[in-house]
Amino acid sequence: MLQPDTAFLDLLKARYGGAVPAAGASMNAVLENLLSHRSVRAFRPDTLQEGVLETLVAAAQSAPTSSNMQSWSVVAVRDPDRKARLAELSARQGFIRQAPLFLAFLADTSRLDRLGQREGQALEGLQYLESFLVAAVDAALAAQNAVVAAESLGLGTVYVGGLRNRPEEVAAELGLPPGVMAVFGLAVGVPDGQVQTAIKPRLPQSLVLHHERYAVSADAEAAQVAAYDTALAGFSESQGMGAGHGWVRRMLTRVASGASLSGRDKMHGILQRLGFPLR
Ligand SMILES: Cc1cc2nc3c(=O)[nH]c(=O)nc-3n(C[C@H](O)[C@H](O)[C@H](O)COP(=O)(O)O)c2cc1C
Fold it and tell me: Nearest-CA neighbor of 135 among 73, 185, 75, 178?
């Protein structure tokens, strides 16, 4: 087995806390970039250099895409007033205003729909839930490539799922045609060096990696989740969030009821009104 070198091991320790998986590799730039990821929520006011946006989108478009359908698009927002309105629509998350660039990633079946119209063919397949799923998956893969590219350039990013709190108002703000929905945002900018960020520990690999068939030992899972809860509480405290911010309580609150989805419990009807019949 390939032995992990020290630099690689250090990042694994940060990512997993105590439960370091038996990963073996020598460090390289890609692994270092991926394993060092942390979301950034404080940005310097600097505008991004010319060409950065296009570089990020080139990285995004380099992601695999289902059947090469490329059923995603992105709106780059730099206008302060528009960013402020989008922040307002996304649970008032202040970093959206602060970041010089806000990318709204779109599940977009409208381009294929227009292709069908030009070819005189109604593309009934676009009406199915599967087509929305394909578009949302494509958008996520593309966005994550943009994140990795941004981090490789020394930029910081944070996703904004809050953009789905009020999708119809977001669609109006961005001028989205039917068959296009903003699935999440991405704030991008130069990290504010005054605000500390750190690698957030994840669940132990043993909880997410199954071999051959899905298998859960209820006792082991409970013990490992409890240990992770403690580790995450320690992490949150070290980040100045105070005590008691573990994982368990937060997850229980996050998905306690439809109401805890911040308006997203109405997503089925919203998507239909945005032009995704979801058959
Ligand atoms: C699809 C998606 C939506 C997210 N939405 C938000 C958000 O609205 N606000 C926020 O502060 N962070 C958001 N995040 C960031 C997560 O909270 C973050 O990735 C997670 O806590 C792990 O932390 P890390 O990215 O620093 O490792 C989102 C992440 C993803 C993948």
Answer: 73
Report field, pTM of the whole predicted structure over 0.90:
yes
Helix (H) / strand (E) containing 99: none
Residue 111 has pLDDT above 90, yes or no: yes
Whats the size of the chain, residue-wise? 279
Cα 138 to the center of its chain, rounded Å: 12
Using a 6 Å cutoff on CB, does residue 94 contact ligand 1?
A: no
217 within ligand 1 shell (Cβ under 6 A): no
pLDDT, mean over the chain: 96
The backbone region for 82, taken as left when phi is positive above 0, alpha when psi lies in -120 to 50, beta otherwise, is: alpha
The pLDDT of residue 18: 73
Residue 176 has pLDDT above 90, yes or no: yes
Residues 6 or more apart whose Cβ sits within 8 Å of residue 183: 105, 106, 107, 136, 139, 140, 163, 164
List, for residues 192-239, the tens digit of each pLDDT value: 999 999 999 999 999 999 999 999 999 999 999 999 999 999 999 999
Name which of 186, 29, 190, 207 is nearest 11 in CA terms. 29
User: Does the beta carbon of 38 sit less than 6 angstroms from any atom of ligand 1?
Assistant: yes
Could you say which DSSP state residue 210 is in? -
Q: Give the pLDDT confidence of 211-223 residue by residue, as tens digits.
A: 999 999 999 999 9
User: Which residue lies with its CA nearest to atom 15 of ligand 1?
Assistant: 159
d(CA 161, CA 185): 6
- Tell me which residue has its CA closest to atom 28 in ligand 1: 159
Task: Point out the ligand 1 atom lying closest to the alpha carbon of residue 38.
Answer: 26
